[in-house]
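A quick aside before the break. I want you to see a complete sequence-to-structure record at least once, exactly as it would be stored in a machine-readable document. Don't worry about memorizing anything.
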Amino acid sequence: MKVTIVDLTHYDAVSACRTGCGACCIAPSISSAIPGMPQGKPAGVRCVQLDADLRCRLFGLPERPAVCGQLRPERAMCGPRDDGGQHAMRWLTALEAATRADAPT
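That is the input. The structure line, written in tokens, reads:
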């Protein structure tokens, strides 16, 4: 799945992944192999590389799927810092549904 993030220059950029969220490692499907998930993962399934703090164990490593590196944190996607990733889960779930191969056009 290729995810395109719309340029929302009126939003402040989120500088880094937030501990306690993990939405980008749960909501989207990933079709490429992930260590421990050779067939990738379906949407809504927690990646096996997500640690107890909801951070990616592969961040910055060459084993990390390219699609994961292409999805950058943005305020529009991540939402408020104190919601435990609820906004991000809703946003990414909607994005996943809209970009499915069988999504209505």
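Two observations worth writing down. The CA atoms of residues 23 and 89 lie 5 Å apart. The two ends are 17 Å apart (CA to CA). We'll return to this after the break.
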